[in-house]
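#structure-requests
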Amino acid sequence: MRQLLIATCATAGLVAAHNLGALGQEAETTQVLKTELQGEEGREANIVKFDVGADWETERHIHPGHVFVYITEGSIEIDVEGKEPMTYSAGQAFYEVPDLPMVARTAGSDVGAKFIVFQVGPTGEPLMVAQPE
């Protein structure tokens, strides 16, 4: 039930229910903004703040839209299929290409992380979609 609430809060204030597992455990999300893009029919911007625990890890997932992430506290590791894992720390930002399978996790063993996700993508698509291995 907690995963349902977390996932739901991540997209309209709420993310679609088929997205639940991808978010991972110990994640609190806050919807900052979700809006249609004027002049860009069928596209929207979605900004979500994440506050994750020390042992947070997502399931393997994709992002249907272009994702930009800014780390405000702690560090996270991004493991994109076919690439070397990368670690990003507070003050750093990175870009994730749509539709590439990946896993994200907290990089510190005893500290959580906070980060802001900004996604531009198709209207109504969830922030994250779980992908079976």
